[in-house]
Amino acid sequence: MTNISKGNDLIILTEGALITALALVLSFVPHSTGVSSIEFMYGLIPMAIFALRRGLKAGLMAGLVWGILDLVLRGFSNGGFLNPLQGFVEYPLAFGVVGLIGLGSTQVKQAIERGKNVLGLIIFYSAVGFFAKYFFHFIAGGIYWGTYAPKGMNPWIYSLVINGGSFIANMIMLVVLAVVLNRVFKQLIIVKN
What we know:
The chain has helices at 3-27, 44-54, 56-75, 84-96, 105-113, 119-144, 155-181, 185-189. By secondary structure, the chain is mainly α.
């Protein structure tokens, strides 16, 4: 491994640590919509930018670390941890798959460099990562959180409403911010040497 490669790895690691810290800090900002358990996850936005900027591997690692930190700092204290399997699915795994947004990194960068509008690509790949995250929450919700469903309501329907609502709320937030940030995508996503 060359010194240039080691230096680049260190830059990516440092950038990932800063983005993960930002995402975690944003988790402490009140984010409930007032509807039972439907929440905005503001940290998804910097994670999406990071995954598009640095790619799949870096995105998955940053999401995984974010999930572990969220479990330790919030999950254990707010009653979000029921047992080890549920904790693994809803924290490291669900947060980690947000990095799937990085699948579109190369395509988005190429489109930016060609001067094309990348809004649709960013929304599509972000939807992939967001959907994966809320899919794991949906599975855990149906299995572990069903007792919180209103009396007589199927726990899977309850989980779909809560986690589907959170997915939709976060996609709306992403679309609004993507439209606002459309002019600065090049500066946010293209890495300068």
